[in-house]
Structures are given as structure tokens and as C-alpha cells.
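Support request from a user on the community tier.

User writes: "When I paste my C-alpha cells into the form, the page sometimes reloads and wipes my input. The last time it worked, I copied everything first. Here is what I submitted, just in case something in the input itself triggers the reload:"
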């Protein structure tokens, strides 16, 4: 039993716990657990909160790293921001029906939290509420919840399924971002465009197929159907991992597919994934795999074999390459004139083949020549070197593929994008300037795609200098591509190879800082320091006595002295920038970040809020010490004092009660 002297309690508010930790029972009569009451109490192992408590304050149990269990009683209506953040030993929490809101980052980084029951009374889940809960496997969001904040379940690496009810009308950006195990999101009332990146879109589409009867908005159903039809290679692996025959049947409702196509492109991959329910459904359609009897002309002998590769009798046609070959590189022999359709078909099994070099003797390629199933998120690309003068349109059937061409005619007529596969050209002949602007950009992108997988054949390495020069001269184009998402590999490459200007590095640093992406923010900050060095600071004492810059700095110093011991924030001028824990919201459609609530908080307490930094600004509120926003740069230029959100709240008297 805890000692009453372990607690500082005033008027029913538990202000501070100052005991030894262990198993703690909070005394009866407490009605509120105040902000930071148990913050950093690493010896706390369990806590029982008494009936009568109605709210748990901001950071109340933050960084209680040994806290394994907590009993939250009925009567609690709100759980404050970061209330249980970084409680890394916490394994499960039951939230009572009385709770109406879960604050921003309330359970963020609770890495041992494996289960959480959210009651039906909750109406909002705050920004980053369960961010980084890497042990959380599933979550059911109850009817009544209307909003899910940005990054609410980001980095929940074990999360496999989510059900979002009809009551939800808004989902914040990247609410389920970076959840690699998540297969399906069932969200019948949420527009498809709310899922901002392609992977979440595929998971939402899979959820639509899995529970289509729950989707009643016909216009929105039409959008989901269109998406399903265009994203086969992203959606089918999800269905097979779930082994959801019902989802597969709904998917087939939208298509008219020949049985032989079903066998090759659906039945065989389903078998490979071990999706027994899906296999049984496909077999029910009458597409049971049966050995095929090859039809031969009466006068045609068996095709000869050379190292397992099938050729025609005269050696002019390449008919079939063996999928089980251990070879990574294959040179099509000189003298072959025709490559038959699906000569390189690897849908039934994985292949180690990654390079196909085609000689100039080849005049005809019957499409598609390459088919391979893209299991996983990042299959390595296939690199195909096309011969000079080939003007036949070229494309694969499935998977990721780069091809190489030697002249503008070949690259201009080859396909650099299809509904069935991702095809990106890599130009090997002459200069990039020989190509028109659109194909030139795709050619450089193909070079970058090869680099993403750490796979740069010698042929491609020869054009590196031309590609580097193009990237430098078209920096804005590639920065725009990066900002569209799923192109972080370009950022990594241009930083590694010193291809960014200082302006470009700053622009990307602002972009990744706005996304709270610490990995790429650190990468770009290191790049800036390495490439451009720290900017020399002005020596204020080198200015003459009548210099206006010196007068401005002296005036600012006088102002600082005048307000440094002031109690409260009345009359003090503030500006805010960047993401905050207790303030701000992001428009899910425009991506714009707003700090309206911070402005209101300051004005209510007699302070002054401005939207831009000037010489009259007393403090800039910013949580990111490496911030490169316009406001941060201006503050550094003018010498404005920068404080964190926590320092501001302490100055203002804490968050609003």
C-alpha cells in the first residue's frame, strides 16, 4: 500500500508523486491526475487509479518505462496528450466506456502494448495516439469515433488488420503509415482518397473486396472497383496472404477472364502463397491445373535443348528459358532471330535470372517475353538489354523490369509503362540529349531505379556521368517527384552522390521535417554540413556604434532583459512553427499545417501571436532543433530566441485546464 506522504494532493488534484515506485495505489478522493504527475518515474511497475478520477493529464505517466499494468476506472472521460507515452513495459490497457477522447500521443511508443480495447464512447483518436506501438497486432475502432488523427497508428509494425466504422468521417495523413504487416483496412465510409499513399490504398481496396456488402455509396464503390482493376499486382498478394476467397470472388466479379489466364496469373500464385481457400475457390471455377499436351505439327521434331534452354530446330527461335536455372546473366545466342511469347515465364516459381542480353540478330520479340510474379514490396528488377534498331514495342507481363536501348528509335518505340508491369528504360547509346524530353526523364529514372536495388550492371554504370549531369540540371523535376511520395530512394542517391544544390537540400529538408521523417532529415542535414558547411556567424562586436544592425540587437537585448523575469506571457510576442504535441492540426486534403489553437491559447492569456518572424518577435516556438523552415531561418538571422513547446507551456502556466 502506498504511503499518503508519497503524494502531493491539492483540492483533489494529484500534483506530484514522489514515492519509491513499485505497485502504487492512488488514494481515494483524487479527482484528477495532473500534468507530469508521474513523469519519468522509471521504478513504477503498476498503478491503480481510484473511482472518482475524471481526467488523466498531459504526460501524466510519460516515460514510466517499468509500468506494466494500469487500471483506468469508470468515470475517466479524457486521457491527455502523451499520458502514457514511452511506457515501454505496458502490455495491455482497457479503456472504460466513460472515456470520450484519447489525446495526441497518449500511448505512443508503448512498444510492448499488444492489445488495446477502445470503448464505444470514444469519439476521437488524437494525432500519434498509438504511434510506434510495435507489438500491437490488431485494432477495432468502435462506432462513434468520427476522427482519427495524423500518424495515429504509424510505425505499428505488427499491425495486421484494422476495422474502421461508418462513423469515421476523417482520417489524418499517414494514420496507418509504415505498417508493413497490414494487409487489409475495412473502411466502408471512408473515401479512397483519404488513404494518401499507394500501399494504404491497396490495403483499403483489399478491405473493400473483403467486406464489400458494407460499402453502400455507389459512387465511392465505383472508385474502389476502378482502383482494384488497375492495381492487380499490389492487391492480389494481399488477398493471398489473407487467404480471403470472398475477397477474391468479389475481385473476379468485375472481370471477364479466360480460364488459362486464371491458371497462370491467379491459381499458380495462390498455390505458391499457400492460400488454400483461394485455391479451392479458383478450382471451383473449373480451372484445375492439368498437364497440357503440347500441340506439334506433324513434321516438327522435338525442340532441341542447349543448357536447358529450348530453341527451334534451326536455332533461330528461343522458345523457353528454364526458371530453375542458377544463372543470373543470360546472353541470347547470336543467330537467334525471334524470341517467342513468354520465353522467360517465371510465374510458377522464383528465378535467379536478373540480366538478359539480346543480340542484334534478333528482329522480332513476341510480347510479352517476360513474366514474373512480384511477391513482396521490393522485388529486384529484371534488366534486359535490347539490340540496336529494334523498333518493336516491348513490354513484360508482370513484375518490375528495366530495359536498355541503344538508339533513340528503339527507346522511342519501346513501352515505358503498362497496365501489367513497371517498365523503365535505361539508355545506353550516345548522349541523353539525343532523346526527347519525356523519354530522357524516364531514361534517367530507370538509371535511378537500378541504383535503388543496389543493382547497377556495368552497361548502366557507363552512363552515370550523363545521368548525374541531367539530375543536377533538372533538380526541380526530381524534387517534385520525391514530394509525390514513394521515391525516397532518389533522395538517398542524390545525397550520396553530391547532386543537390544548397537550395535543393533545404527544400527537401523542409519536406522531410514536415513529415517528421527523422531518418531522411538527418541524412539531408548531414549532407548540408558536409557539402556546404556551417554558415559563419556575424561578429556583432565588429559593428560600429552607429551601425543600424548593432542598434537593432541592443534594442532586442533590452527587450529580453525587460521580460525575462515576467510571470505569465501578457504582452509577449510569439510565433510558432513545425509540429507540436498539444497544438496544431493538418488539413488532410491540402497537407497544410495550422496552429490556430496555439494562437487562441496565447491570446487568451494576454500574449500576442504573429504569423511571421520579425525584429519585434520575442520568442519562436519550435520543437525541432534542426528546423529549416522559413520562420526558423529568419529567427536565426535576427537572433530571435527559440524555445520548445514545453518551455513555452512552463512560461504560460501549463496547458489549458
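"...and here is what came back when it finally went through:"
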Amino acid at each position: 500500500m502506498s504511503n499518503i506522504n508519497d503524494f502531493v494532493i491539492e483540492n483533489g488534484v494529484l500534483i506530484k508523486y514522489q514515492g519509491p515506485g513499485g505497485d502504487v495505489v492512488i488514494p481515494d478522493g483524487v479527482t484528477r491526475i495532473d500534468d507530469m504527475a508521474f513523469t519519468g518515474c522509471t521504478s513504477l511497475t503498476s498503478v491503480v487509479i481510484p473511482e472518482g478520477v475524471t481526467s488523466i493529464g498531459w504526460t501524466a505517466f510519460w516515460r514510466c518505462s517499468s509500468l506494466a499494468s494500469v487500471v483506468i476506472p469508470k468515470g475517466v472521460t479524457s486521457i491527455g496528450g502523451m499520458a502514457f507515452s514511452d511506457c515501454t513495459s505496458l502490455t495491455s490497457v482497457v479503456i472504460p466506456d466513460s472515456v470520450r477522447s484519447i489525446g495526441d500521443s497518449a500511448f505512443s511508443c508503448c512498444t510492448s502494448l499488444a492489445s488495446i480495447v477502445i470503448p464505444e464512447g470514444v469519439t476521437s483518436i488524437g494525432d500519434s495516439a498509438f504511434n510506434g506501438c510495435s507489438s500491437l497486432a490488431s485494432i477495432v475502432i468502435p462506432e462513434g469515433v468520427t476522427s482519427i488523427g495524423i500518424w495515429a497508428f504509424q510505425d505499428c509494425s505488427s499491425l495486421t488488420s484494422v476495422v474502421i466504422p461508418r462513423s469515421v468521417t476523417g482520417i489524418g495523413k499517414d494514420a496507418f503509415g509504415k505498417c508493413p504487416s497490414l494487409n487489409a483496412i475495412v473502411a466502408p465510409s471512408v473515401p479512397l482518397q483519404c488513404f494518401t499513399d499507394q500501399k494504404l490504398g491497396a490495403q483499403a481496396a483489399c478491405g473493400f473486396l473483403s467486406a464489400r456488402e458494407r460499402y453502400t455509396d455507389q459512387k465511392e464503390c465505383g472508385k474502389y472497383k476502378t482502383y482494384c482493376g488497375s492495381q492487380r499486382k499490389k492487391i492480389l498478394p494481399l488477398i493471398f496472404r489473407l487467404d480471403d476467397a470472398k475477397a477474391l470472388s468479389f475481385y473476379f466479379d468485375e472481370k471477364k477472364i479466360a480460364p488459362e489466364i486464371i491458371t497462370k496469373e491467379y491459381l499458380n500464385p495462390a498455390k505458391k502463397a499457400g492460400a488454400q481457400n483461394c485455391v479451392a475457390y479458383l478450382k471451383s471455377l473449373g480451372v484445375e491445373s492439368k498437364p497440357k499436351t503440347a500441340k506439334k505439327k506433324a513434321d516438327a521434331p522435338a525442340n532441341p535443348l542447349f543448357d536447358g534452354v529450348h530453341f527451334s530446330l534451326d536455332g533461330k527461335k528461343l522458345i523457353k528459358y528454364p526458371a530453375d536455372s542458377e544463372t543470373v546473366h543470360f546472353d541470347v545466342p547470336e543467330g537467334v532471330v525471334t524470341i517467342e511469347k513468354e520465353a522467360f515465364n517465371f510465374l510458377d516459381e522464383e528465378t535467379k535470372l536478373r540480366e538478359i542480353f539480346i543480340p542484334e540478330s534478333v528482329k522480332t520479340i513476341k510480347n510479352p517475353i517476360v513474366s514474373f510474379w512480384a511477391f513482396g514490396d521490393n522485388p529486384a528488377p529484371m534488366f534486359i538489354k535490347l539490340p540496336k534498331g529494334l523498333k518493336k514495342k516491348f513490354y513484360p507481363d508482370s513484375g518490375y523490369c528495366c530495359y536498355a536501348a541503344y538508339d533513340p528509335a528503339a527507346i522511342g518505340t519501346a513501352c515505358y509503362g503498362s497496365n501489367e508491369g513497371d517498365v523503365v528504360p535505361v539508355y545506353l547509346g550516345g548522349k541523353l540529349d539525343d532523346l526527347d524530353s519525356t523519354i530522357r526523364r524516364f531514361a534517367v529514372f530507370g538509371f535511378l531505379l537500378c541504383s535503388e536495388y543496389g543493382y547497377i550492371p556495368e552497361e548502366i554504370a557507363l552512363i552515370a556521368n550523363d545521368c548525374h549531369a541531367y539530375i543536377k540540371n533538372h533538380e526541380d523535376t526530381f524534387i517534385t517527384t520525391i514530394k509525390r511520395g514513394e521515391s525516397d530512394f532518389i533522395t538517398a542517391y542524390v545525397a550520396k552522390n553530391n547532386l543537390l544544390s544548397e537550395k535543393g537540400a533545404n527544400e527537401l529538408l523542409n519536406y522531410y521535417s514536415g513529415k517528421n521523417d527523422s531518418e531522411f532529415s538527418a541524412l539531408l542535414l548531414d549532407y548540408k554540413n558536409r557539402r556546404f558547411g556551417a554558415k559563419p556567424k556575424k561578429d556583432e562586436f565588429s559593428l560600429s556604434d552607429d551601425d543600424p544592425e548593432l542598434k537593432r540587437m541592443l534594442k532586442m537585448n533590452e527587450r529580453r532583459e525587460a521580460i525575462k523575469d515576467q510571470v505569465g506571457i501578457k504582452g509577449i510576442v510569439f510565433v510558432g512553427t513545425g509540429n507540436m504535441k498539444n497544438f496544431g492540426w493538418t488539413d488532410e486534403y491540402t497537407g497544410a499545417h495550422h496552429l490556430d489553437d496555439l494562437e487562441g491559447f496565447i491570446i487568451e492569456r494576454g500574449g500576442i501571436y504573429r504569423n511571421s518572424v520579425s525584429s519585434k518577435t520575442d520568442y519562436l516556438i519550435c520543437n525541432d532543433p534542426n528546423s529549416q523552415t522559413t520562420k526558423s531561418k529568419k529567427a536565426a538571422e535576427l537572433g530571435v530566441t527559440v524555445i520548445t513547446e514545453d518551455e513555452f507551456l512552463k512560461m504560460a502556466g501549463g496547458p489549458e485546464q
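Agent notes: The reload is a front-end session timeout and is unrelated to the input. Residues 290-302, 373-379, 412-422, 536-543 have pLDDT under 50 and may be disordered. The chain is about 30% helix and 15% strand. Escalated to web team.
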